[in-house]
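ESCALATION

Customer reports they have been waiting on this structure for their group meeting. Please prioritize. Original submission:
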Amino acid sequence: MANLDDIEREFEQLFDDVWRLHRLPGRRRGFRPQVDCFRTDDPAELTVIVELAGVEPEDIEIFVDDRALLIAGERRRPHPECRLSYYQMEIEYGPFQRRIALAEDVDADGARATYERGLLMITLPLAVRAPRSARVSIQVRKRWATR
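Update from on-call: job pushed to the front of the queue and completed.
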């Protein structure tokens, strides 16, 4: 019999696939950022990378709660000083929210997030003991590349 976590992941993948389908003009529903999630062993961490080009770090909220990571925010449409007539309109704007089910318990207090060149990277150390059930907010730190 299938594990409930496996079934939940399959449903989330199905809905993610539906979001990737081409949407007709005028039927826009908002911005849905793409996400990668992976685990490392040394150190034992889960890392989540979210593609957020055009989103200001101060417009991002991150929470960890009950084996889930919630990322919410808004990509705002630039408002130029003049009147516009669009010839093409493909970029999605607006509020977004992604809920990522975490495959393992994490130490939310040790979590950290950095934002660089449009990519948000959230690192969640794996829990050594059972995690507390309170909701924890993670601050986003802007990171600039030095060359």
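Sent to customer with the following note: The helical segments are 4-20.
Escalation resolved.
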